Amino acid sequence: MLQATKQLSLIDFGNVKLFINGEWTSASNGSTFSVKNPNTGEVVAEVPRGAKEETKAAIEAANGALPNWAKLTANDRADYLLKVRDLMIEHEAELATIMSIEMGKAYTEACGEVKYAASFLTWYAEEGRRVYGETIPASSPNKRLFVVKQPVGIIAAITPWNFPLAMMTRKLGPALAAGCTGIVKPASQSPLSALAFAALVKKAGIPKGVVNIVAGATAEISDEIFENPVVKKISFTGSTEVGKKLVEKSANQLKKLSLELGGHAPFIVFEDADLEKAAEGAVASKFRNAGQTCVCANRIYVHENIKERFTKLFVEKVLALKVGNSLDQTVQIGPLVSKEGLGKVQEHVEDAISKGAEVLTGGKVTGDQKGFYYEPTVLGNVTKDMIIMTEETFGPVAPITTFQNDEEVIYEANNTEYGLAAYLYTSNIQRAVTVSEALNFGVIGLNDAVPGVAQAPFGGMNHSGYGREGGHQGIKDYLEEKYISLEL
Ligand code: NAP
């Protein structure tokens, strides 16, 4: 690990600073918080513990930068975004290393996230050029009616640890392209990726104050964001529990809020599915980021007639996954992000076993006990009274259950308060369409385990939140529509 950090140019692990108004800044009271490597449990960096004062300074900086940034042409803003995109790609190895060290994502997967994160900058650089207004037919001959779109102003992005770069650029890309400026509050477990990104923002010459990054005292930072009248829009990605609190908090200042929250994705394998493809898809969907994604398959429903064949194929593929230090390029499954995360996985598996689940592979903590590793696990004989069938596990555990017919599986798949992603595998076109339409989820993977791309809208229904990120839809939240009525 030390070997890896010696080669870093974007961030000095021994001297980490916040990024406010284009400058590297310590906390005003000198306090810090620790970032630990989940592979070893070791502290890798002390990060300034930003709080109210730093947040206020960041908001003021964003406010100062707003008029000039908003005045730039969309083409000029696009040039800046594309410069940062190019720098991200140039620094892919370094960004992936930082991410892997601070939150344990397997290195090769982290490289994939860097590309995915950069793709939001590419997409919104272009989408910003297509923020078209409208003209509306008037009711009298001497009137002309127009709609113009303008940036909402100062925005705040609150991001989770599981995609430290992509969840940030999915918000900053459209915000900056629309002409907004703002502040990012990264997760306390993964602030280093965001701060390394800030180094690229600086390198690209983005004007001071346009992007500010403040990590630290979560409650104080968030109070300032929600109470400061200058902040007009907040985009949050994280747990449903916190999302609900933020809805209440947003009322006082009537903040525009978008929420990308938790999920509990069903993964349905019909009798007519290509089983090899379905098993491969189930591995990709379930074990990505060691099972710590909001769109991970959390409940695998297999038609009873193909249960044995599917399970055999699936278990074989799971057995081939290599667990270990996330910086090892041959590893697919790194550690869980924290001891608490590991504890939750253990609790879900123990609960399932106590209620009759069969461990088909895995089922134990692994490694040297310093890192938070859990064996890729497959559970059979799973029933709906088990916690794993209703709560996000956020770990490498795949519960398999069976169904007899389409109506039953549609009912069970929809029988959740969440509504983020759902997957189905079938070769029957009729079934593909009717089941996709019947599933109450914002994203459907139809014979596709990894549907997320920058050009498509991503977001949830019900307790998975509201608003869409990605696609042409993703820039709307950062724009106000102003109606102008002209009498000649
Ligand atoms: P989390 O605990 O809700 O935290 C997310 C962010 O919110 C972090 O920056 C966190 O800061 C901050 N936060 C925590 N409590 C807060 C409060 N009371 N007020 C304001 N901010 C607060 O979620 P997480 O554990 O980091 O992330 C995992 C969750 O995110 C899962 O539920 C997952 O499904 C969801 N997720 C959803 C999507 C999506 O697109 N729908 C994508 C990725 C993840 P601290 O780190 O300092 O606590």
Protein traits:
488 residues, Aldehyde_DH_Superfamily, binds NADP nicotinamide-adenine-dinucleotide phosphate, seven-stranded mixed beta sheet, Ald_DH_CS_CYS, oxidoreductase, alpha/beta, 22 strands, 14 helices, Aldehyde Dehydrogenase, Chain A, domain 2
What's the gist of this structure?
This protein is of the alpha/beta class. It has 14 helices and 22 strands.
Structural class: alpha/beta
Taken from the alpha-carbon principal axes, the silhouette is globular
Number of domains: 2
CATH architecture of the largest domain: 3-Layer(aba) Sandwich
What's the main sheet like?
7 strands, mixed
Mean pLDDT equals 97
Give the N-to-C terminal Cα separation: 70 Å
- Give the uncertain stretches in residue-range form: none
Strand runs, count: 22
What proportion of the residues form beta strands (DSSP E)?
Answer: 15-25%
The oligomeric status of these chains comes to single chain
- Using the CA coordinates, give the radius of gyration: 23 Å
> What fraction, in percent, of the residue positions are helical?
25-40%
InterPro entries: Ald_DH/histidinol_DH, Ald_DH_C, Ald_DH_CS_CYS, Ald_DH_N, Aldehyde_DH_dom, Aldehyde_DH_Superfamily
Family: Belongs to the aldehyde dehydrogenase family.
GO molecular function, one term: succinate-semialdehyde dehydrogenase (NAD+) activity
Organism: Peribacillus simplex
Describe this structure in words.
- InterPro entries: Ald_DH/histidinol_DH, Ald_DH_C, Ald_DH_CS_CYS, Ald_DH_N, Aldehyde_DH_dom, Aldehyde_DH_Superfamily.
- GO terms for molecular function: succinate-semialdehyde dehydrogenase (NAD+) activity.
- This is NAD-dependent succinate-semialdehyde dehydrogenase.
- This protein has 488 residues and is an alpha/beta fold.
- The protein has two domains: 1-261 and 465-487, Aldehyde Dehydrogenase, Chain A, domain 1; 265-453, Aldehyde Dehydrogenase, Chain A, domain 2 (3-Layer(aba) Sandwich).
- Helices cover 38% and strands 22% of the residues.
- It has helices at 2-6, 52-71, 74-90, 92-103, 107-127, 166-178, 191-203, 218-227, 240-250, 275-287, 307-319, 339-354, 406-414, 429-438, and strands spanning 18-20, 23-25, 32-36, 43-48, 134-136, 143-151, 154-158, 181-185, 211-213, 231-237, 256-260, 265-269, 297-303, 358-361, 365-366, 373-374, 377-380, 397-403, 421-425, 443-446, 465-466, 479-487.
- The strands form six sheets. Strands 14-17-18-13-12-19-20 form a seven-stranded mixed beta sheet, with helices on both faces. The protein has a six-stranded mixed beta sheet with strand order 9-8-7-10-11-21, sandwiched between helices.
- The longest helix is centred in the N-terminal third of the chain and has 21 residues, at 107-127.
- The chain is globular.
- The mean pLDDT is 97.
- The structure holds NADP nicotinamide-adenine-dinucleotide phosphate (NAP).
- Residues 158-163, 167, 185, 187-189, 218, 222, 237-239, 242, 245, 260-263, 294, 392, 420, 460 line the site of NADP nicotinamide-adenine-dinucleotide phosphate.
